[in-house]
């Protein structure tokens, strides 16, 4: 609030942030309208209008259409459908919302006997199932919208004196464009909740939230590294041990139903990611295509983990040698950014992984807009690349797509550099700036 602002009895900063988040998310739903009207059945329109989403395809491609438990080892189901390649938190959510979508469409659960006899590749075009697909997207959109609002609430409450920082999340173009591509917001809200819990000095709750996030997406696990650095600086090793134990316990509890009902299916997430080669958005794909050299999954695995390990050591040294104890969001942002920079795939919605951490780490509009400009450029480029609209007329690889990837990484590195500077020179950190008083001007005499 400005020095002349009187405030408002009802329109508190948190409520304003929530309203803006709702409007931003609604704009994202409108952006997917072209695909929704065609039930994502037009292969080119999804790239022309940039309205692609994984949700409708996974509904029929991963047995949600038959309400099959994602980790069942039933031979008939496994012969017809691929196993969900996501962590258990997302699989549970996808399975549960399939029930809700079918109940909303049919005002009750439909009989599955007939569709169980159809070939899987014909299900997507079935008019009855297309209606379910639209309901499936609607149900998920409403659920994810609630998670987006909850994320905004946590961000606005993390720094008691700076609720308006959350507006950079609420009005984010990245949120509007990518929130409905996949279920990444399930992990995002848990990361935001973990930073809020840590700001309230609740290490056990922080650990539980990190564990739940890790059961939904792997990257929330990296927050424990940030917690370790803060605890080393403040000599609070007990808090780190409590957070770690709580994270492990929460992860085990959430994963246990999946593991007990289908250990082989549960392990697919780990094997799928280890066997995956260079993919969309990654620097590995640029190198592979630019040099016309095949890069094996093993090479990518070794190279990316070595780089990430070295990056984590660098963040550790940075955190220990900083003049003041870095904030959790700063360290968490740096660690997750390092993981994404060399990951074998960098999907457009992965920007959501960084968004809450970036907003808390560097709450300045200019820096957020520079970073997100690169993300928006990549968002446009990846869909046109997949639609073959960036291919040279003479044939060959789409060099424009490589440029978009490099610009995206450069914008991310820009924000990384700013955060590193804030850690090394805390007087530049917007969250700490009130703690510093500028020295009086030097008097010139003579």
How confident is the prediction overall: mean pLDDT? Answer: 94
Strand content: under 5%
Low-confidence stretches: 435-446
Strand pairing plus helix content: what structural class? mainly alpha
Largest sheet at a glance? none
Task: Please count the helical segments.
Answer: 23
Helix amount: 55-70%
Q: In the residues, how many domains can be counted?
A: 1
What's the order of the H and E elements?
HHHHHHHHHHHHHHHHHHHHHHH
What is the rounded distance between the termini? 43 Å
Compute the number of strand runs: 0
Overall 3D form:
globular
Report the C-alpha radius of gyration, rounded: 23 Å
Outline of the structure:
The chain is mainly alpha-helical and 446 residues long.
Explain the overall architecture.
With 446 residues, this protein is an all-alpha fold. It has one domain (13-424). The protein is built from 23 helices and no strands. Helix 13 runs parallel beside helix 15 and helix 19 (297-321) packs antiparallel against helix 20 (328-341). The longest helix is centred in the N-terminal third of the chain and has 32 residues, at 127-158. The model is unreliable at 435-446 (pLDDT under 50).
Features:
23 helices; 65% helix; disordered C terminus; mainly alpha; 446 residues; single chain
